[in-house]
Write a structure and sequence with these properties.
Length: about 450
Amino acid sequence: MSPSTALRRMLVVFLLLVAAAATGSGGATAAPQATSGTATPDRPRYDVSLRSDATGDRWTGRQRVSFRNASAQPLREVYVRLWGNGPDGCAAPAVKVSRVRGGTAAPLTVDCTALRIELPAPLQQGRRATVSFDVELTVPDRTERFGREGAFRFLGNTLPVLAVHDATGWHLDPYASSLESFYTLAGDFRVTLDHPTALKVPATGRTATRPGAPGRTLTRSVARKVRDFAWAAGPFRTADTTTPGGVRVRSYWSPDTPAEGVRINRRDGATAVDALGASLGRYPYGEIDLVMTPGFPGGMEYPGLVLLGTTEEGGAAVHEIAHQWWYGIVGNDEYRSPWLDESFAQYSSFRLMGILEEQCSYGTSWPDDEAALTNSMAYFSTHPGSFRVLYSLGPCALWDLEQTIGSAAMDGLLRNYARDHWYGVSTTAAFKRAAQAATSKDLGPFWDAHRIR
């Protein structure tokens, strides 16, 4: 692709992101049990069966979650995050859970995004337990990651997922509308979606369909070692291709999506998944779905599925596919360290498009003295628009690191870092250690200059 085309596309995405910025709400809930340094519950398995209404507006069914206690401390409870309730909180909950089995449910907290389930007995280290519950999902009437656009439904951050407990306690941070506040451990999903045959249903994982009741189709998806599960539903047009690297790219778009934009996204998506796989480690999921509509605000990433607002010049396909590595494969706590996925994905996409030097030649000032790349969403949610530094100063800091240690060393650093945190969790401290180990230069002044703390 040409740098000028890529630049225009990324500018469109950036402006959409700024326009979508809003202040998060709610507060964290303190952990009631003893802390341990090991992240738990781990190795979760989610078994889900849902049935939609005629339009895909409402989905009901049952979800079963099995998990292991990785911590040396007995696990007396688990928390389930209902992120779909984030935008409206308890005023209009879009995700409802009932008939909990395997534990005792408490009232919802953190603006109805956190459900505590007390286990019937303390779960010892290495042992597994299971909870299950009925789920009712109602798609909100807004064009967002959990929302709709015309006849098309987006169900991102919708399925209840386990919260994480580690040395700091339970991570029960509030929903952040301007970016993400999600933090989960990699697990396995087996999801069956029963829907009208007229609706195409792209979803996380490897999907297959078979006939259901008259006029209905069962879409079954299996996704291993992913952090979340998302899907969409609507009368999409579709096309499939397989990249030279063997990844199946399945494209879905609404009929009013600009045809040239669809073509560009399909091309860029296929190119990016192979190129990033070559530099960071082979894409492990075999399939990725591109879901394109003209009105979706910017883009949003999920394991094996991305939502793309698409103009004649395409969309944020390269950036969102970079998130398959930076957030998906190499996880992080998106509330406390959003730069570890957003800045890294932006850097990887700019680097792939060959526009890092051009993008970083303008120079962007810090919005205030408190701003830092490593700030949490507690800062960014209360400083509207300030998160732009994650998309501008963040990738440019990584480009400056590349200039400091050399391109070959940067290649090795990123590939080795991804390998060492594959399906795990990245932290700023771990990346700083890895970067310092990749060079004989003292990087202390570098971290200070770029406010990487």
